[in-house]
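A further point concerns the way the authors explain their paired sequence and structure data. An entry of this sort, consisting of the sequence and the corresponding backbone structure tokens, reads as follows:
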Amino acid sequence: MITKTIRYDLAQGIATITFDEQGSPVNTMCLQWQDDFETVTRQVEKDREQIRGIILASAKSTFFAGADLKAVMRSSEADGPRVFAEIERIKRHFRTLETLGVPVVTCLNGAALGGGWEVALVGHHRIAVNDPKIRFGLPEITLGLIPGGGGITKMTRILGLAAAQPYILESKLFGPDEAMKIGVVHELVATADELMPRARAFIEAAQGKPEACTHVWDRKDDKMPGGTPASPKVAAMLSVAPAMLKRKTQGLYPAPEAALAAMAEGALVDFDTAMRIETRYLAGLMVGQVARNMINTFFFHMNAVKGGQSRPKGVPKYQPKKVGILGAGMMGSGIAYVQATQGIATVLKDVSIEAAEKGKAYTTRLTQQRVDKGQMSAERQQGILNLITPTAQATDLRGCDLIIEAVFEQRELKAMVTQEAEPMLAEGGFFASNTSTLPISSLARASTAPQKFVGIHFFSPVDKMKLVEIIRGQDTDDETIARAYDYVQALGKLPIVVNDSRGFYTSRTFGTYVMEGAAMLGEGIPAPVIENAAVQAGMPVGPLAVLDETSLSLSVHVLEQTRIDCRQEGKPYVATAGETLVERMVKRHHRPGRAGGGGFYDYPEGGRKHLWPELKTLFEKPGVAWDLQDVKDRLLFRQAVETARCLAEGVLTSVLDGNIGSIFGIGFPAWTGGALQFIYGQGIETFEQRCTELAARYGSGFELSEAVKSSLRQHQPRY
């Protein structure tokens, strides 16, 4: 029997079910697969007298990819009963195979993730190819969902409530070797060619052995490892787990809470009831907005970025072999470290060899930490260090495929180092600026080849931040953009491509967040309210704390440079309320930020940081009324409005760059799916209405022009 997604063969008493979704590189639980799986399962029931064993296999390079997420994107709350029925239907057919009374063997030739791992768990005996690149597991939490095809119930019964938590609540993925150690895979083979012979051998050896065709959860003597919630030790753990989870999620992510509830509640009841509990929780999440937000960005948009959707087409793939970095400060040192760990020869230049050596020492420090933890060999460390050449001589840059300047945000300095280093480029090489605010087109005036000049904006700390913003200047050509994109991907980073503008996308939008926080402080709202409201809304850190980390003095420097640039362009620049307050903090109160000894916070040596007590005296106004929801909304909506303006102005050319950039560049809450999905998720009309309210109370920063409103509708995604 051959269907559109499954092949079924019965030979010599062994039924082979091969998943092979036509027209797709992977197998998914699409609606067609659900229908085909029902058809095949019914055929198995008809043939049960002839069947001595069943093999589950895949014709793809991976075993099974999981659920059809586009279907989730199209669902709404009204679809809850339908979604529940679909999940139960799949699980009913899983149970048919599991309880047929014959051994079922899963042949794992490649990755099995999410629903794919749940398909794998149908097998009583699971055999995997011992390839460390293969990944198994349940990543649903990262998409706002939970494992609902039996994954929670089965993994909890196999591993126990405590041991299963990392694999369910933290979406920990694992390879074949770990799968074997924890007992979710029973046998490893060297190559995929060995899977079928081993599966048939197991079926032959299992004849007449009931335990070989019965899962642990179907055995009468089954006991959950570590105990059930009825045991005092487990009960004590579960009594604090929800509070710890709430502290981590701020109640903004329903999936982890649902997963924990399904684990605990399911452990108190029989297997079939536990499976229905799991289904109810999953169905509720699948028709909720948070899951749609997270799937949209962390699956579809992430895959689009990795697939090069924003990369100019028709340009051959590019791999730089030698890259120069100008400036061995925090940013330049971080870029050097990341490049060297990816095998790229790096020339790290500064004004003195001592400064350059100090920059290289950053890589020594980070790699030594990994060596000390047993995560890296000393030989590997030395190989990385050998790739970094510190220097004070521009001539050592000769032959670089790419040179990146990462010097101080000063236009004259950047022009000087550009003119000094650019002649050292290899033929066909290109030049990049790591500026975070200065327009690329203006910096390119110092270049003899502005078409080969591009912005490559890294985020600090470079070794941890995944995003890199590529900025197209007025003259930058497609080949340079494509090469910059390939370079960023070669570093294992996420590239987004934006057009030139002051602050580009990320710095411009990030600035609205921190300055809105500063503005609220100036209005008399207590600093603790502002900081806590930000975290409660899902931001990783409050705006005042972020300003301290990035340096208040740097913000003032950027403000002063902006005033100079605008004056030269004949345009007056009026500082915002937030910028004025930050300037006051630096110039009047001498609070430059953390690096300068203190800003909005004090940093006592050996103690925890705390808000500067004088903030209360200087800014807090006891008579000022404030609303917590308004404070939260001002922080999120202000960023969303600026993102929408960037889209309308053409700084952003796609919704996906806005969503990926806002989450991975400026920490916009993941539950929203990004700054633009935050708008689309609640509905454009609802967003516009709330912006009108906020603008009436708090100013023009929340106003939406007709052009912005039109742009939002034009770019609204369809699924």
